Amino acid sequence: MVTVLPYSFQRIETIRHLIREALRSGRANDWEQKFLRDMDVRFERFHTQTRLSEKQYKTLARIIDLPADEAPQVKPATPYKARTAPRAARPQSAT
Question: What tens digit of pLDDT does each residue of 35-58 get?
Fold first, then answer.
């Protein structure tokens, strides 16, 4: 999986404006509206620290007609590290 690195404050504000504009226009279907609302919440919460997968970014760009004036920066995602040792058993209560 690849993650898109965060954008500048100005770029995030542009994306959020385009998301709100797409939601107001009514041109997005039900799934796209939910996706856009979820993305807007994510951008509001994490702002310049928002991370998107490449697929999420491409879907967002397609729905909101995102101008390609700034190509996304990508880096490999940190791989998931599986637990190497089993969990210790919880102590049993005396009741």
Answer: 999 999 999 999 888 888 889 999
Using a 10 angstrom Cβ sphere, with 0-12 exposed, 13-18 middle and 19 or more buried, the burial of residue 95 is exposed
Q: Residue 71's closest CA among 1, 5, 24, 2?
A: 5
Closest residue by Cα to residue 22 from 50, 44, 31:
31
Beta strands in 1-95 (DSSP E): 2-4, 52-53, 74-76
- For the entire predicted model, the pTM comes to 0.68
The 8 Å CB, 24+ separation contacts for 25-31 are 28/63
Tell the residue number behind the tokens 């990508």, with chain if given.
Answer: 74
Could you tell me if 74 and 2 are in contact, meaning their C-beta atoms sit under 8 angstroms apart?
A: yes
Domain ranges of the chain: 2-76
What residues have CB less than 8 Å from 21, skipping those under 6 apart?
64
Q: Hey, what are 85's tokens?
A: 């040792």
